[in-house]
Every structure is written in structure tokens, then in C-alpha cells.
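User: Can you recover a sequence for this backbone? Please restate the input before giving your answer.

Assistant: Of course. Working from this structure:
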């Protein structure tokens, strides 16, 4: 029995997120069907994170224990033969028996893409948020800097039926960059709450249109009140970009 770590990427446009749901097509469902076909078994797979409907992943990690004898350098090729074109396995490596894709994770990086131009880009439909008002990158970076540090992020979390638990997270880096009309927000943390990145993006867009000041981000954090933050940005501009593990060479 080997414990395998698989690195995937997927286009979330046609899926209701990663996790299996009733009456909805998800990435996990498609992936598990392919595993059963290729391995002739149904391993209990552990995903590194939940991703919401329409959210994409440049790097998504799955761990599973299997008795399959398929060589690890061949496994991605075989799986990709049967996976839908919008899901791809990039790498397979053996990890320690106690490795868990979610609980062994020490950090993640998300990016959010905004197409900032009067004219929409048809090639980014479903892959970037079209925002046509001016964006001051220096102003956005000033506001983003107030997120960096360890805080209770209750103000930046959508409350649902899940238990809230510990709402403290540490943002290690948050920056905004522009390449012509494409603006990308890049945020790295030890973990993220439900809709946290999308609410932070929505709040920064409130800064962009001068509805709140950059320094107001600090008071919104301290308020621990979701109603004080900005709206939740649309999901399809969001990408899980990198996943970090201690001691693992990915």
C-alpha cells in the first residue's frame, strides 16, 4: 500500500466546485470515476481544500492510498487519457504514510484575475472578472497591506451551516499587479475561510471606487462583522494557485 500525492489543475467553469454534491457535477466526482476505471479500485481520496462553484485551480493536491502497480511517472498519463479535458493530473509522487493533502498543508496561495478595460475580453469569459472602472494599483496595494498579519477574519467569511471554529488566519503576503489590462491579486496565507478571498477582493474594489479608505480595512477586521466588509466578488476570477507542504518537494 502506497500513499500517493497527485497534483492536478482544473478549469472550474463547468463544475460546482471540488467536493462531491448531490445533483451537481463536481471535479471530485469526475476524478473518482476516472480513478476507479484506471485503478480498478476506489481509493479514499483526500483533497487539499474545498473550491466553490466556477472556481479554478492551477495547483490542487490530492492524497490517496493505493495498491496499484502503475509506475508513478506513468500514472498522470494514464489518468489524463480518461479525464475530461478540463481536468489534468500533472504529477504523482509517493509520500510518507501519514501524509494528508489537507492536514499536512501549511499554506496556500490564491490569485484573483480582473480584466480592467471598457471592452470585455471574450477569451477571459468565465476566467476573469470584467471591471471597467479605473483601478489605482498603488491604492489597492496600500489597502491590501492592512490584511497582512494574524487576525480574526470573521468580517471576511460567509457564515453558513458549517461550524465557524477558529476564525484566526495569518496573511503572509498580499499584492496587486497589473499587466496591461489584466489586474491580478495575489494572496498567500496559512489558510483561508469560506469565501475569504472573494470578500477581500470585493472590499478592495470598494476602496477602488472610494467608498471606503485603505486604512478602513483594519477597522473592518477588528469589527468581526461580515456586514462591515465589501460584497463577495464573483467566483470565476478566483484560482487556487499554489499549495505548500513542509518537507515535500512539489
Amino acid at each position: 500500500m502506497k500513499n500517493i500525492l497527485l497534483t492536478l489543475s482544473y478549469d472550474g467553469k463547468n463544475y460546482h466546485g471540488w467536493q462531491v454534491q448531490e445533483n451537481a457535477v463536481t471535479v471530485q466526482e469526475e476524478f473518482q470515476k476516472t480513478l476507479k476505471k484506471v485503478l480498478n479500485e476506489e481509493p479514499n481520496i483526500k483533497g487539499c481544500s474545498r473550491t466553490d462553484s466556477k472556481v479554478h485551480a492551477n495547483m490542487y493536491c490530492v492524497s490517496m492510498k493505493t495498491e496499484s502497480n502503475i509506475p508513478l511517472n506513468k500514472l498522470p498519463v494514464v489518468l489524463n487519457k480518461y479525464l475530461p479535458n478540463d481536468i489534468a493530473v500533472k504529477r504523482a509522487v509517493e509520500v510518507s504514510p501519514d501524509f494528508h493533502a489537507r492536514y499536512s498543508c501549511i499554506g496556500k496561495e490564491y490569485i484573483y484575475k480582473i480584466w480592467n478595460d471598457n471592452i470585455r475580453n471574450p477569451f477571459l469569459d468565465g476566467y476573469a472578472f470584467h471591471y471597467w472602472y479605473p483601478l489605482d494599483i498603488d491604492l489597492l496595494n496600500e489597502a491590501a497591506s492592512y490584511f497582512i498579519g494574524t487576525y480574526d477574519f470573521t468580517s471576511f467569511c460567509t457564515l453558513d451551516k458549517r461550524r465557524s471554529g477558529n476564525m484566526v488566519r495569518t496573511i503572509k503576503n498580499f499584492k496587486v499587479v497589473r499587466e496591461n489590462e489584466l489586474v491580478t491579486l495575489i494572496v498567500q496565507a496559512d489558510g483561508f475561510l469560506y469565501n475569504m478571498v472573494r470578500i477581500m477582493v470585493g472590499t478592495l474594489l470598494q476602496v477602488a471606487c472610494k467608498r471606503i479608505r485603505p486604512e478602513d480595512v483594519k477597522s473592518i477586521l477588528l469589527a468581526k462583522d461580515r456586514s462591515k466588509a465589501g460584497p463577495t466578488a464573483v467566483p470565476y476570477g478566483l484560482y487556487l494557485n499554489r499549495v505548500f507542504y513542509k518537507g515535500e518537494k512539489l
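That completes the design. Strands lie at 2-10, 46-47, 56-66, 87-95, 105-115, 129-130, 149-152, 168-179, 182-189, 238-245.
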